[in-house]
Predict the structure of 6-phosphofructokinase.
Amino acid sequence: MSEGIAIITSGGDAAGMNPAVKCAAEYAAKHGLKPWLVYGGLNGLIQDKIVEADRLLVSGILHRGGTVLRSSRSKEFFEYSFREQAYQNLKKRGITKLLVIGGDGSFRALHQFYTDFGMPFAGIPATIDNDIAGTDYCLGVDTALNMIRESIDSIRDTATSFSRAFVIEVMGRHCGYLAMVSALASGAEICLTPEIPYNLDSIGARMKHQIENEGRDFILAIVAEGTKMGDYVTRWINDSIGMEARLTVLGHVQRGGSPTVYDRIMAYKFSVAAVESLISGQENAIMVYRKGAFGHLPISEVCDNKYEMDPSIVRLCKPLSE
Amino acid sequence: MSEGIAIITSGGDAAGMNPAVKCAAEYAAKHGLKPWLVYGGLNGLIQDKIVEADRLLVSGILHRGGTVLRSSRSKEFFEYSFREQAYQNLKKRGITKLLVIGGDGSFRALHQFYTDFGMPFAGIPATIDNDIAGTDYCLGVDTALNMIRESIDSIRDTATSFSRAFVIEVMGRHCGYLAMVSALASGAEICLTPEIPYNLDSIGARMKHQIENEGRDFILAIVAEGTKMGDYVTRWINDSIGMEARLTVLGHVQRGGSPTVYDRIMAYKFSVAAVESLISGQENAIMVYRKGAFGHLPISEVCDNKYEMDPSIVRLCKPLSE
Amino acid sequence: MSEGIAIITSGGDAAGMNPAVKCAAEYAAKHGLKPWLVYGGLNGLIQDKIVEADRLLVSGILHRGGTVLRSSRSKEFFEYSFREQAYQNLKKRGITKLLVIGGDGSFRALHQFYTDFGMPFAGIPATIDNDIAGTDYCLGVDTALNMIRESIDSIRDTATSFSRAFVIEVMGRHCGYLAMVSALASGAEICLTPEIPYNLDSIGARMKHQIENEGRDFILAIVAEGTKMGDYVTRWINDSIGMEARLTVLGHVQRGGSPTVYDRIMAYKFSVAAVESLISGQENAIMVYRKGAFGHLPISEVCDNKYEMDPSIVRLCKPLSE
Amino acid sequence: MSEGIAIITSGGDAAGMNPAVKCAAEYAAKHGLKPWLVYGGLNGLIQDKIVEADRLLVSGILHRGGTVLRSSRSKEFFEYSFREQAYQNLKKRGITKLLVIGGDGSFRALHQFYTDFGMPFAGIPATIDNDIAGTDYCLGVDTALNMIRESIDSIRDTATSFSRAFVIEVMGRHCGYLAMVSALASGAEICLTPEIPYNLDSIGARMKHQIENEGRDFILAIVAEGTKMGDYVTRWINDSIGMEARLTVLGHVQRGGSPTVYDRIMAYKFSVAAVESLISGQENAIMVYRKGAFGHLPISEVCDNKYEMDPSIVRLCKPLSE
């Protein structure tokens, strides 16, 4: 019986998880491992929802959003007894390696699992927030950005038809990446994020100047969820700038959608890197993409550090916060 | 000098306004009228933003959302002195007919204008709410529905990945048309609208039954804005049904987007009907589409009656409110 | 055991088949029939690929293009012995009624089946060509039109960037419906179809006039497959009009895509009508949509007549052929 | 009078040109240069279609495909006398720098212009073929790939509904980049490009094995335009593999479409780099993106070398050619 590898999606869902699952399963099989799929995230490990990855199960999933393996947040996995159950479920099938596609919480959980039972894993960073340390890119971000773009391009139709301001809140509890890139990509006038200090007085003066002197007759403002400024800024544009303003909270529309080409290709490359790292004997490595190349980092460097925003994006965005 | 016809978009913007403008201008020119474009809605009439509709101005607009003529809500138009100014602006250019694309508020305003100065108009109903009496269809509805569909299809990816309930609030202050059709088109389990009485107890029982007996592990609920039930239902699903629930308010994303084929073709047919009604001497007729055919109604029948919801849609939707 | 109804998709695939399958299965179950799904079209009847329609099989299919039941062209079904095998497969499961979603060829095949074994069917017209007699609409047409629209809107970007002519061939072997509606919806300058006589000389003169006098610097021409004029017109624009021209044959891109809202709702209404017609004892009725209402026709009226093109579309399109 | 910089789009149009124009104009203005727009590519320089880049001209273009500045192939620019005319047109406006967004042919033309008149330029590589030496990325590629993806995802609906093979020809006369990435991103079974030697015998054996043993019932094959194998492979699948096959030539659909977020952001970064290189006194530098970072290369390194395909893509694609 060939050695088994179990593939799990865990944490918040992100576009690109499905192509990563498909590619990891196929690449593992081609290189002598027997791939298994875990349904329902870490809970699925405990509940023994582990199925051999035959061709039909990974066929026709490449272009679908979310994760067909489903995900979950598992409280039980924090308890040793449940983890031991999970271990027995893997052991009885000859599974000796794990590949997890998810966020840093999931990586930590599997590191604990490794400490308990010595079963190594490889991690593929996937979260639309793009806030995992050590990698320039997390799976799902490009798709989320393009979903946001389509929404904003649609709102712009109304904004330009009606001389209105639209405030659009995008996801990102601690990280303004989606907000910054969306603001640039949509030509927004205002962008508020946790990372860049903003000054409403100067923003207001800039807007009024453009309205009075340059014929500006609509405003797009992008606000990161984490600033909690959506409502406030909307009222402020109404009251201080004097342009009728509306708030749209994009919500979970941002999470879905068929993965873009970029996310599908990144899924392939991340998966190949992850399977190869496991085959080569790496333990608990997190795959990272930095400066245009793939590599891996020990879990501590990923989970104990804070993500740093791309300085070139910050630099381009700064004028929108001033 | 040939007789002039001025084309105006007024009220909330809707997809399909641009193809209607283009077609009306071209069709009018072909039939001996000289077409003019009014920028900025009724305000534009007062402020004399009236431009000859040459080929370049109506070229390349067919596929764009919103209205390139821009719209507005005009308080000034309620005053006789401003209306007279508008009349002078039209008269000096030899404009003797108006074509307005908008909602019933705009029709009423132009009817007052007719009472004052005897200038006839034709109206094309355009509003994404689909709540104008006498017509089965208002321009913009199909595009709005497809924008909503894409958003819900995206949210569904997340819902099915994660065992969650999503409550989605769609536009419609007095009318549940968008909510009902979207609920059917997205296979939602729950739909709450102003028109159909709903019973949360029986809905809850139905959901629990499916969760316990049929493996249901996600819920999509569509709520019309006018019910003001978005927040309440979201908490209620959380607390009473016991499934983690999130609310998404789709907002102005619904208004924009490139017009669908249906809206482009309806725009053509409505425009042709409107120009022909003016040429044939009809005064103040509102174009309507009923039972698959175009016709027109006197303004009183449109503005003094309440829209009636398509009973076949109500019938299909009823089980989602029970 | 309750009476069974088997649902089949047959002939060329069309968007809307999946929502029709889902709705028919659910509506039949609600009204006391036991729904079955036939996989692989008429061949599936013969090969006994008939499965009970449980909730999971019709879940998550509403938004998918094509047909999850798959389709086929079956030569075997022309032979009595194979049809008898099909009959036995139905009989042993207690299936007494058939619902077929497809084109007139499929309707004829099932009518033969009825003549042989007395098993009644109801038909839902589904084909992107919109060329079935007696109904104004066939399932799948709206989605195909919107797929074409998106392709043409994309090509237009290049056409306007580069002073070029683009000839676009759309599907329709005997019927110019897709070509005509697409030409209107995309603001094309030229449209060639089997139905409307066209005159290249006058078209050429019209184009040259616009190029020389009105600044026209690109041309969009839509050609129906059935005219076989794609290549010829492309060369003709190059040589006679003197504008660099390119041909794009849209091909099977037109067939796919997530069903639009219109197709989903029509699928619902067609399915309800079909199930109700079977329950009420109608035999071999074809559901039709005419003048905004649903009804049904005896199969002879559908299969022995030629489809007539919507005259209002022909009228709007005629100037593009002159 | 501040120094002028003229912005030109030249060669085949590509998505991302519009955001590059907008950003370059705004960034130049902010840094003390006076931006001008050249309409109609190099021909526009000769014909004096040079306009001051005021806010309205670069507003509302960010999300539009193609190039609003329009492009052209200019034979006249090969002649010194026309180039001198172009130079006079620039000189009389105080324009001393050029920024060109296009391919290597355009870079060569402007290098000749520099040799003649000493006017320096900066180049931004833009072509959907991604075949310019020295840069990992050319503007427009991501949008083209996603347009292709949507078309293939649509065709897949039909392929899986009907047990068919689809051969899809994508652009790329000398370069298989679009074909390779599209094949990976769509999970194609077969990929033929100019770069990777392919073996139809072994491909045929692989397909037959999967059809007979693994239930494969459809095939997607992606073929690069440059191989000229589209027709041949389609017939070969029909005849040798025995599965009904259809060819779709995607054509100019690939060129258009609203720029993706990736192309918009790359447009920003390329533009900033280009304006900065001109300000810093660089002459005739081509902006390049390599290993995740921006830089620039002398024109000779770009125009005298052949593009090298990303080896990680080649490696992932090789199994599809065997």
About this structure: The mean pLDDT of chain C is 95.
